Each structure stands twice: as structure tokens, then as C-alpha cells.
Amino acid sequence: MSTMLPFQLYPIADQAVTLDFGGPISEETNDRVHRLVASLQQNMLPGITDIIPAYNSVTVVYDYMTVYQEQLKNENILPVYLCIENWIQNHLNDSSSNIEEVRKEIIIPVCYDKSVGIDIEFVAKQHNLSIQQVIELHTAKTYRVFMNGFLPGFAYMGIVDPAIQTPRHDIPRPLVTAGSVGIAGVQTGIYPCNSPGGWQIIGKTPISLIDENENLLLTPGSFVKFESISLLSFEKLMKP
Amino acid sequence: MSIQIVKAGILDSLQGLPSKGKQHEGFSPGGSMDLLAHRIANALVGNKKEAIVLEMHLPAATIVFTKETLFAFTGAATTALLNNETVYANQPIVVNAGSILSFHNQQDSARIYMAVQGGFIFKKGRLQKNDALASAHSFDYHFEGIGQLHALALGWTANTQEFYRTNSIRCIQGPNIHVLDTKEIADFQNTRFEIDLQSNRMGFRLKSKPIQHSILPELLSTAVTKGTLQLTPSGQLIVLMADHQTTGGYPRIGTVISADMASLAQMPIGSSFSISWVSMLEAEALLLQQESNLQQLENACKFRLQEYFSEK
After folding, report:
1. Which H/E stretch holds residue A39?
2. ipTM, 2 decimals?
């Protein structure tokens, strides 16, 4: 028997509802998020268009008219958003025994050279470390993908060693290039494409995060280890 | 082939309805900014509502029709020039191959939507001069007797006025509304929010007197939707539009109701509006009402087209 854990359930739009577990970034809460997502996916309602997991919340986006018409058939007179909230809540404590845990281990080569890791020197100075120590600390851990978002293929990963956690820039850069590996507080991530961005850039990977069929390399269930490569191998790998 | 862009507009693109089921991977739903206009343009030419339309910002493209086509336009243009003759918005029009369509600037709205019968075939990215756009399939209806005419309006006009509002936009309150005090919340209906120059299909920046708020909480990234009102550290709002990011970390003080998104999408840069708060129940009722009106219009268009062509 699982106990009821605290959560909040509220509409964020007239066609979207969020279930929010609250609290800081934690693997335990994020496990709960993905269990709920899996359970909702197995018990889909007509009219649900997107189920979006985040660190500690799940957002369900729906087509109002489809859900409304379905409720009419069932002679249900509740407002549509309450039907969705009830549906989410009803699956909150589903047994997770029939949910397959997929664990995908991925090694990502990263060049930490100053020429591509444009903030690594700053990060090192902030923490009174050498650049080599920053690299060792960043490559030592296996990171969990908590969620996708921000840009197609972007994965929010963590938890970064406290010794190198660095807040994002106050003013985002107008351009961060594709493949840039960054840190923002407890989070680390890779820019899948050129984009404005505020994260501290400590390296760059030649690996592509999204293929031509829009399949993503990193999704929840992926566990990532970074491997330091030289500038020379980076440049070789970057050549087509 | 059915049309060719002979002069590109400032931002022309082909748009469908928002895509579904990809937001958890970071893909924005996209789609037409003004979904009402999208559906009205399609209804006028007898298309299904999901058919691809041409969305044009002002100044809009100049287009040549490469074959006989049934087309219609709606949104930010009440008239257009077809071979130097005036044609009107919200009407199905048969046009001959070789005809040239151009729009003059009409700045009271922001986006023009054009549909051709059969719908366009999707092509990614911004449209350029010389881009030729195919329509999905050939005519279901046969046009005989248009002869030497350049164009033939079929003779009816959809009334779209009732769908749009200009002065105030209705919103529900968001999960982080409590960073504002009750007076500030109430004051939104007396405040003018102006659509800033730095606005695009991703979001509108709103210029207003600085919004007074308590210390903003550090929030974890979470899903955001079209219409979300994000409060930035500078005390200004950003409202998310069709190409919005899927997640965000700014406090969310409210969300534009679905029934008012088309009106907001048609507000040009520099125009302003106030925000009035409604409940979820009101938002749902307004959406249901709008959908019912729109379906009535779609059915009427379908009926008129069938009637017209059965008489031919």
C-alpha cells in the first residue's frame, strides 16, 4: 500500500491541468512523476493531447471539446477540468508493478577545452578549482535525465556536484551553439541547437541530440556519463 | 501547383492546427496563431479544419495563381487586389490561372490567413520568393463558365466580426498569482498592456507600468501552455503564443482563455488591451459558446458550397 503524498492539483489554462508534488529537485519525486505519467498513458482518456512530465510535476493538456462530448455521453455534468483532475488523481496511486523501468546508459564525449567551454575558467575560479578539477567533477557522476523541455531534444540532467554548481548568467547570451554543455545550479544540459541561453558553458559535444526523424537521444530513463575528449578528437568528430 | 510567391512578405509560412503529443520532448505545438481564422478560411473553401493554410504577417506576400483555384482569405485584410480589382475577405472566390493577388497594409489586425481548396502541402520554414506551393489534391468541384473573368466571387460572405474582441482580454488566474496583492490583481482591468516590438510567434512582450510584486520564488521548470502570462524579474509580462517553449521557470500569474487567443493573435504590435479575470467555469462556457458559433459558421459554409455546385 502506498501512502498519499502531498500534492497540489490545479488548472494552468482552460485546457491544461498540472499535478504538482512540490519540493526541490529530487530523484524520488521525479520517479513518482514518471510513474504517474506511465500510469496515465496506460489509461488514456479521449481528448488528452499531451502529458508533460517535469522535475516534480505532471501537466496534462487536453482538447476541451473532445472531453466535453465524451462527458456528455456519460451524462457527466462536472466541469471538464474537474473530470481531468479526477482522472489524474485516480491514477496517482496505481501500482507500478506493470510499468517497465527502462534504463538507458549513454556515454557522451565532451571537449572541455576553453575555446569551446567558454565559461569553464569562470566556473573554476568561482570555486577555487583548477579546470582539470572541474572536468573531473563533471565527468565523475552519472546524471539522470529528469525531463525534456526548453528546446526539442534538450534534456534537464542532474544532480551536479555541489563543488561546481554555478548559477546561470544574469543576462542570457544571444547565441549558444549546438552541442554546448552547460551548468545551471544543480542542473546540467546540452544545447541541441543554436539558441539564446544563460547556462555556464563548460564544454561541447560533437554528438547530435536529435536525428532527422526527430528521435531524441536523451529522454527520461536515460542515464548519462560525460567523457572528456581532446580538442583534436573533438574537431575530428565534428567533421562530417 | 496552385500558387507561387512572387514577392515574399515579412513572414509568410504554412501552418496547420497545433501538433499533439510531442510537447514532452520539447517540441512546441506550433500551428496557426489565429486558429479561428485558420478554420474560417478552410471552411470557406470546403476544406477540413486541419487543412494547411498560408499565414501572412504584414506586409504580406504577393501571390500568383498557377492554376484555376478556389480560395479565400480572412484575418488582417478586409480587401485585396486581384489583378488590380478589389476582392473581399471572408468570401470563397474562384480565380483563373495567372492571376496576381496582393495585399495592401491594413494595420488594425496582425495576420492574414489564406486557404485554397484541398489545402496546401506542408513545406517547412519561412517562405521565400519563387516558392511554389502545391495544393493537396485537385478540385472536387468543376468550374465552368468563369471564361475570361479573372475571378468570380461565389456570392456570400462569412460574418467573422462577432468572434473578435479588441479592448480587453480575459484570463484565468495562474498558480503563482499570489506574488501580486489583491489591489494589484484588481488593477489589471484598468492597466493597459501594450504589445511590444519584441513580439513574435513564440510570445508577446507586454509593456505596462511595472507590476508590483513580492519577491519572486525560485521555481523549477515546469510545463507552460499557449496563453501563459509569465512575470519576468523586471515586472513585465510575457504571454506565450503558438511557438512557445514547452517548459518555463518564470512565475505564472495567469493564462489567456482559449476563446480569446485568436483576438490576442490579431492584435498588432503597438496596440494595447486590459486584462479581466474570469473563472475556469466562465472560461469553459465561453469556449463552448465560441466553438458552437464556429461550427455553425462551418456548417453554413459547407451548405452554401454544396448548394452552389449542385446548381452548376
Report:
1. helix A27-42
2. 0.94
